[in-house]
Design a protein that fits this description.
229 residues; Cobalt-precorrin-4 Transmethylase, domain 1; 2 domains; five-stranded mixed sheet; elongated
Length: 229
């Protein structure tokens, strides 16, 4: 039985990839990529010659039909995101849903675990993260206020840490919006995890915001808000 492999790739440092992931990426017939240019940097680093095909949130239904047809023909495929584990704040889960509905039992869907920014950040937060709430990326425009109000509500009701992602273009705006709702929040902000300029900010949200304002704001961010004790 042929398979679709869900392969985790490095979130920054190219050494953070498993031997199994490298083997799978070498053996499959095609690699589905969020951005082929990004994935090819990884493949070239490890001299992997497997062909690639773009699959992302804007892919049309014809692309999904094409992928499903390849699986019907007995091809083995791998799905990767630009960084980390597919399906975590990217469209991989939508593809898996379509495949399981249309090809349920006809192919295997096999996870190849590895890096994920959310667990990487949680591991160094110092907060109790035996339970936490992950909320992905805040909306870019509409419903932002509702998103941050939901964080405050979750902190009050569940008392678990809340983790979310943010881009460099909106990180300061995001922190300021959260600070307006609760200026006493204790947070950890991780920037450029596993990369050369990895930086971890810790403390009261006001202090952390000031520190980030002083730095050159680059790279992707993971924000962890401490739950109520």
């Amino acid at each position: 039985m042929n398979a679709l492999y869900i392969v985790a790739t490095p979130i920054g440092n190219l050494e953070d990839i498993t031997k199994r992931a490298l083997r799978i990426l070498t053996e499959v017939d095609l690699i589905l990529c969020e951005d082929t240019r990004t994935t090819k940097k990884l493949l070239e680093h490890y001299q992997i010659k497997t062909p690639t095909l773009s699959y992302h949130q804007h892919s049309k239904l014809q692309k999904i039909d094409y992928i499903i047809n390849l699986l019907k023909l007995g091809k083995n495929l791998a799905l990767v995101s630009d960084a980390g584990t597919p399906g975590i704040s990217d469209p991989g889960n939508k593809l898996i849903e379509e495949i399981t509905e249309l090809l349920n039992g006809e192919i295997k869907i096999i996870p190849v675990p590895g890096p994920s920014a959310v667990t990487t950040a949680a591991s160094i937060s110092g907060f109790p993260v035996d339970k936490f709430i992950f909320m992905g990326f805040p909306p870019a425009k509409r419903k932002r206020k509702k998103f941050f109000e939901e964080i405050i509500r979750q902190l009050a009701e569940s008392k678990y840490p809340v983790i979310f992602y943010e881009s460099p273009h909106r990180i300061l705006k995001t922190l300021n919006e959260l600070k307006i709702l609760n200026q006493n929040l204790k947070i950890v902000v991780a920037r450029e995890l596993t990369k050369k300029f990895e930086t971890i900010y810790r403390g009261n949200i006001g202090k952390v915001t000031e520190e980030i304002e002083k730095d050159k704001v680059k790279g992707e961010f993971v924000v962890i808000v401490e739950g109520k004790k």
